[in-house]
Amino acid sequence: xxxxxxxxxxxxxxxxxxxxxxxxxxxxxxxxxxxxxxxxxxxxxxxxxxxxxxxxxxxxxxxxxxxxxxxxxxxxxxxxxxxxxxxxxxxxxxxxxxxxxxxxxxxxxxxxxxxxxxxxxxxxxxxxxxxxxxxxxxxxxxxxxxxxxxxxxxxxxxxxxxxxxxxxxxxxxxxxxxxxxxxxxxxxxxxxxxxxxxxxxxxxx
Length: 205
Hints:
Layout (H helix, E strand, L loop, with lengths): L25 E7 L3 H17 L14 E9 L4 H13 L5 E10 L7 E6 L3 H20 L13 E7 L6 E10 L1 E8 L4 E9 L4
Antiparallel strand pairs: 1-2, 1-7, 3-4, 3-6, 4-5, 7-8
Helix pairs in contact: 2-3
């Protein structure tokens, strides 16, 4: 008997009362967004690099440039209990503002025709960012949220655009800004729309 993508038989999907899982429509994640000045610089750099490397993909909308801290999951509808735990975790983190410096760009090899071309940094430029990401992960774990990123596996970056071609890692003029807040974001999948659900100021409390 033919198996479907969820491990069941093709016949089962047509039986009364059986509903195949729906495709996710909503995503939740914690993120840091550049301030307006830095976001404009990111946009200008994206346009320059796009021309230099002959890429056809268009840069993301300026307001969508961000660094993901933690991906909470993709869902069908927005799960209130996950949102509540995320709110609790975000409110419990105490952190002063810190500097972020990105000095390299490269493509991540993804699915065919859609390789993310990103800005990223290393060393001191993202040390405090990585420390904050770990602290937020600890706060999430205390509320019962699943934490999928580890220190060794977390690569902070800003996605500039998506393109069918890939570009090897190369240096760029340093782009930096001061992180002063972090955001819980509701992304409507397929609609290129980010809705901020909560913001927390980075300051001693």
